[in-house]
Amino acid sequence: MSTATAGPARRRRARSREERGIGSSILLHGTLIVASLIALFPIVWLVLTSLKPRDGWLSSELKFFDNSSLDNYTRVLTETQFPNWLLNSVIIAGLTTVIGVFLASTTGYAISRFRFPGYRGVMWMLLITQMFPVAILIVPLYNLMAGLGLLNQIPGLVIAYMTVAVPFCAWMMKGYFDSIPREIDQAGMIDGLTPFGTFWRVILPLARPSIAVTAFYSFMTAWGEVAYASVFMTGEETRTLAAGLQQFVGQHWSDWGLLTASAVLIALPAAVVFLLVQRHLVAGLTAGATKS
Amino acid sequence: MATSTGRVTGTARDRAAGADGARGRGRPKKAGPVRRSMSQHWYAWAMVAPVVVVTAALIGWPLVRGVYLSLTDATEATMGRTIGVNVIPSTYGFTGLDNYVDILTSGLFWDKLIWTVVWTVACVGLHYGLGLGLALLLNRKMRLRSVYRLMLILPWAIPSFVAAFIWRYLYNSDYGVINAMLKAAGLGAVGWLDDPTTAKLAVIAVNVWVGVPFMMVAMLGGLQSIPGELYEAAEVDGATPWQRFRHITVPGLRIVSSTVVLLGTIWTFNMFPLIFLITGGGPGSSTEILVTYAYREAFTGIRNYSGSAAWGVIILLLLVVMALVYRRALRKQGEVW
């Protein structure tokens, strides 16, 4: 790629690796443009379809614009249970995230820093619970919820989501804490802080971006969960979005106009939050105050 | 359950881990009598306690119950329930390993297993390869870099169930844009989701679309954490780009890679929403992976709780075996835990 230009002595380190010939520049940008188009196209098409009139989705011709209107949006917001579902999803995913992050943060720190009897056990537990197929827990949990009268109740689904969120958050945070140099803890300890004090006063503030990322992940997981939601929330008004949207494109009746409009409404806030935290998505993975 | 065994063996192993010169902070190597280890480790235990308790209650108990159910003939009809004030007692009984024998001797299971493995390997391989490739491209200084990154990350910002619906519409044989484009190009329409082979390709494509951004971001993070001095030094020593990649980038990415590949494999293996929402397992049951099949057993028709639980146990065992093998492989390369 850049060997040709690397010849003469360059003092600035970045230079030689970052200079390119025109050919490789075109190739680089070309590849990225194609990849970006593939990444973007389905989303763009979704938005375009949602803006078509009521039966616009039924056209088999390739038309980008077709009497744009907000008809589908007004129908979704006024004629369906969509607002209810949205509210349910927000509450459930929010609760799951807050509780999950809260419970998992200390564990992430402990398994990142300490080697204690039971360490391996906890690591294995976290790893294995990540693997739990929906199939094995869903039936017992379903029966449990039925027994407790928590079917079609928000707390029921939140509890079910804990089974996913807690191990996941702990695992994620361990990774993040690993990237914070130990010298920082040691400094805290030398200054007379207890392990808890170090965690609370020193590490947690440093790890804030990572916690945001973990929270975001677990929010998205709960937000997009389908299997539990489809079984646990069956009442017309208690569905979450993931379960509810299936109603729009059922076996006997489908209305892609409704579906695309609601998909845009769901994806929009998610994408906005995503863009706000996306800098931390990378930063969080490599966070650390000093390079070790 | 994992914890209790972990704790018993933990002491002995902990010593071994310490002796390995683990990255640990040199906690004393011997866990002495209970009291000493209590005073040394109580804070660590206190810190992991919340997760252990929650996991035991929410996962441990249902797991035990699931395993028990898998040994019975429980179905919707035999399961006890309460209708109004009437309590109907359970009538299912213990049947031993019947469910497992039924499953393992059915051709269906092996079909599903093969497809699940193909699906997982194809998806994770493509995720990783494309993710790493794009990360390498994005890790250079160039114009529009942040714009590209933003666009490439976007599929990740779309919740997976929404992505599933989007793609189902794109694939739609009558109104889908993919067929519209094919027609515009003078080719015939394809019933993407109506034929087993194209349906399989279709779901893999969607999962790749959904999953690459995560890998890309993880890899980009890994790349950026590799100190630039290493490349500098290599360049001074006259290393070719390939040598730099092979001897600096690859080892530098190993820890990130091992984690994301393992997680990716598990997620893909258990990837429920995409297949459930795009093809519903169809046509027939050709795109049904193990997890969606088990779900179908449990919640359609007469709900076969015990059969579904047995499928669940088998899937879990497969994954645990896989993780063991994977960990062993990592350990050979010197990973700590």
From TrEMBL, chain A:
GO BP terms: maltodextrin transmembrane transport
Membrane topology category: Multi-pass membrane protein
Keyword Cytoplasm: no
Assigned GO CC terms: plasma membrane
Single GO MF descriptor: ABC-type maltose transporter activity
InterPro entries for this protein: BP-dep_ABC_trans_perm, MetI-like, MetI-like_sf
Domain (ABC transmembrane type-1): residue spans on this chain: 86-277
PROSITE patterns (alphabetical): ABC_TM1
Subcellular localization, as worded in the UniProt entry: Cell membrane
Gene3D superfamilies, per the entry: MetI-like
Transmembrane segments: 21-48, 85-110, 122-142, 154-173, 211-233, 253-277
Pfam families: BPD_transp_1
Keywords: Cell membrane, Membrane, Sugar transport, Transmembrane, Transmembrane helix, Transport
Domain of life, source organism: Bacteria
Chief location: membrane
PANTHER family documented for this protein: MALTOSE TRANSPORT SYSTEM PERMEASE-RELATED (PTHR32243), MALTOSE_MALTODEXTRIN TRANSPORT SYSTEM PERMEASE PROTEIN MALG (PTHR32243:SF50)
Family to which the UniProt record says this protein belongs: Belongs to the binding-protein-dependent transport system permease family. MalFG subfamily.
Identification of the protein by name: ABC transporter permease
Originating organism: Streptosporangium minutum
From TrEMBL, chain B:
Family annotation (SUPFAM superfamilies): MetI-like
GO BP annotation list: transmembrane transport
Subcellular locations according to the entry: Cell membrane
Membrane topology label: Multi-pass membrane protein
Location of the ABC transmembrane type-1 domain: 113-326
Residues annotated as transmembrane: 42-64, 113-138, 150-171, 201-223, 253-278, 309-326
Region entry Disordered, spans: 1-34
Major site of localization recorded for this protein: membrane
Keyword field: Cell membrane, Membrane, Transmembrane, Transmembrane helix, Transport
Top-level taxon in the UniProt lineage: Bacteria
Biased composition (Basic residues): 24-33
Alphabetized Pfam families for the sequence: BPD_transp_1
One CC-aspect GO term: plasma membrane
Compositionally biased residues, Low complexity: 1-11
PROSITE patterns: ABC_TM1
PANTHER family: ARABINOOLIGOSACCHARIDES TRANSPORT SYSTEM PERMEASE PROTEIN ARAP, BLL4140 PROTEIN
Family: Belongs to the binding-protein-dependent transport system permease family.
The protein's name in its UniProt record: Arabinogalactan oligomer / maltooligosaccharide transport system permease protein
